[in-house]
Design goal:
This protein is an alpha/beta fold. It has one domain: Rossmann fold, CATH 3.40.50.1010. β4, α7 and β5 form a beta-alpha-beta unit. The protein is globular, with a radius of gyration of 15 Å. The two termini are 29 Å apart. 31% of the residues are buried.
Length: 143
């Protein structure tokens, strides 16, 4: 049984349409929240009600003991992934700073034996091309 993780786009969609990803959330694997995803959600929340929803979500995951905090190894691997993306895929990390977070998410999900669900096919497919981790691409309200 895999541990399941969702990228921030999935959570944004869930706030507007709670039934959108029933197949993920009603599954055999436990759902975890990456602390990196939590940071991204909070960074994008500008309205008071948005922050309240995110803090409520975080509180639930904290109570369940299901917040993933990257380890030193995760950071090392994320750095290696960034080098590979620049050398092999031509990424310019100065122009795409969010790719750093994505690499850290990919490394931490792999190292805990998880599967990442995301709509961000462009970046996570590139990461998967240079770093073997489990990812599932979903369609949602945000494209």
């Amino acid at each position: 049984m895999h541990k399941l993780f969702c990228n921030w786009w999935v959570y944004i969609d869930l706030f507007t349409n709670p039934n959108l990803y029933e197949d993920i959330f009603i599954s055999e694997g436990p759902i975890y929240l990456s602390s990196v995803v939590l940071m991204e959600l909070l960074a994008g929340a500008h309205a008071k009600n948005e922050k309240k929803k995110i803090r409520s979500l975080a509180s639930l995951f904290k109570k369940l003991g299901r917040i993933l905090i990257p380890t030193g190894l995760d950071y090392e691997q994320a750095g290696e992934i960034l080098v590979w993306l620049q050398n092999i895929k031509g990424y310019n990390i100065r122009k795409s700073t969010s790719i750093t977070n994505d690499c850290l998410i990919a490394a931490s999900v792999k190292n805990i034996g998880g599967v990442l669900y995301t709509q961000n096919k462009k970046d996570f497919q590139a990461i998967q091309d240079v770093f073997d981790f489990k990812v599932s691409f979903v369609q949602g309200a945000i494209t």
